[in-house]
Amino acid sequence: MIIYTMNYLPFEKELIDLADKDLVVREKLLTTGELYGGYHPEMEKIHKANAVRLREIIAEIGYPTISKVGEKANDAAWLIIQHAISEPEFMKACYAMMEENYPDISPVHKAYLYDRIQVFQSKPQRYGTQLTADGTIYPVEKKENLNKMRETVSLPALSMTDINKIPEPEDIPEIDSKDVEYTVWRKKVGWI
Prior knowledge:
Elements: H1 12-31, H2 41-61, H3 66-69, H4 71-82, H5 88-100, H6 107-120, H7 146-152, H8 160-165, H9 175-178, H10 180-189
């Protein structure tokens, strides 16, 4: 009789479990209508705890690349980083680590994180991955190169109709004027 055991790479299961917990809480808050209207304290608590643990893992093994933790756990680490929104320096440091470890990470992860950081800083994004509250693509650095940039990270091309709807960088939709509490929060955590 052959007995199969799961041989997890270091931290593989833990990273996946942390990301799953994040998604379960997010889904619960979404279902109850509590996810929107400010950064929900329960969601923030999960994000902060996950970031603390990911920092510890990074201190031990470096950035959790695909070869170190497997593809699913690498995806999970990226989700944790994407959701560490109250820790701008951590997100920026992780982006730098992604750059150092390319191509042992998903290029899509790098694109999404770059764009997310830019948007939180009220700057144009590069790959068109982030949307405004009304579902419009947040302004990009260069509309004319957008699909070329997306192609470099394996994102699908956008239609010219979608690209033409993107506001110009000088018309960045200021979230500040729409949500005073959000602006206070961004200042408090160091985005602006």
